[in-house]
Amino acid sequence: MHLRSVIELLAMSSLAVKGASAACTPIPSSSTATPTPTPSVTPDCGSDQSIALCCMNLAPWSTNSGIWGGACGYYPADPNERVGARCITRAPGTNCFGSLLATCCAGFIPGQCSLGTRCT
Predict the structure, then answer these.
(1) Which DSSP string corresponds to the chain?
(2) CA atoms within a 13 Å half-sphere pointing along the CA-CB vector of 110
(3) What is the 3-state secondary structure of 59-78?
(4) 6 falls in which pLDDT band (50, 70, 90)?
(5) CA–CA distances in Å: residue 91 to residues 46, 56, 86, 105
(6) Would you place residue 9 in the very low, low, confident or very high pLDDT band (cuts 50, 70, 90)?
(7) Highest taxon of the source (predicted)?
(8) How many CB atoms lie within 10 A of CB 13?
(9) Do the Cβ atoms of 59 and 83 come closer than 8 Å?
(10) How far apart are CA 46 and CA 96, in angstroms?
């Protein structure tokens, strides 16, 4: 589009706004808004796994042993233990938003890795 065409379009839209009457109804906006993140389902934490967490990852320790063992320094007795990574604590009965996963764990190791241990 040429510069003159853009200027003409701006002038026309300016005239249209100036000449608009109070009876005009606004044009409905299209549905381009970002959807609200759906909270993940909050499990009820029992006495064995009483620490409520929201984690970025939840998997058996053996699937990421190089990081969870090496960089994070956590070595469980059972390599199939479910571990939560990059976790934050949450109040019981609250939800996790975005891509965070709600889980219950028996332990929590704060710090760089923020690991939940023995998670459901």
Answers:
(1) --HHHHHHHHHHHHHHHHT--TTPPPPPPPS-SPPPPPPBP-PPP-STT-EEEEESEEEEGGGGHIIIIIIT----SSTT-EEEES-EE--TTPPB-TTPEEEEEEEEE-SSS-EEEEE-
(2) 3
(3) EEHHHHHHHHHHHCCCCCCC
(4) very low
(5) 14, 17, 17, 13
(6) very low
(7) Eukaryota
(8) 10
(9) yes
(10) 18
pLDDT of residue 43: 60
In angstroms, the first-to-last Cα distance of the chain is 59
Q: Tokens standing for 85?
A: 């990574």
Using only the alpha carbons of the chain, give its radius of gyration. 26
Tokens encoding 39: 């909270």
Q: Exposed, middle or buried: residue 35 (CB in 10 Å: 0-12, 13-18, 19+)?
A: exposed
Give the pLDDT score at 99.
93
- Quick check: 79 and 62 in contact, CB under 8 A? yes
pLDDT in tens, 25-75: 444 444 454 444 545 555 678 778 889 999 999 999 999 999 999 999 999
